[in-house]
Model the fold of this input.
Amino acid sequence: MRDLDHALLMSHIALNDFKALKGMIDPAIFSDEIFGFHAQQAVEKTLKAWLSLVGVTYPKIHDIEELFALLTDHGENIPDQFRTLIDLTDFAVQFRYDFFAESDTE
Done:
C-alpha cells in the first residue's frame, strides 16, 4: 500500500541533506567523509521516498544498490546514469563510524 505521508517525510529529510551539501563546497572545511555521508543520506532517503510512494516496504538498510534492486523488483526503472550513485553507499553510517574509529587509533 502506498504511504504518501512517509514518502513526504523521507523527501523532506533528503532535501535537508541536499541543502547541507550546498553549504559544503569548501573541502578545506568539510572532509570527503562528511560530504559523502550527506550525499549518501540524500540519495538513500530519496529512494526510500520513492519506495514508499509505490507501496514497497523496505528494510532498515543504507545500501543504495539494494534499494535500487527493490525498486527494480517492483517494476520501477532506474535510469543508467544514476547507477554510479551506488558508490555513495561507502559513506553510509557504518563507514562513517569505521572511519572515525580508525582516526582515533592513529
In short: The mean pLDDT is 89. The longest helix spans residues 32-53. The domain at 4-105 is CATH 1.20.120 (Four Helix Bundle (Hemerythrin (Met), subunit A)). DSSP finds four helices and no strands in the chain.
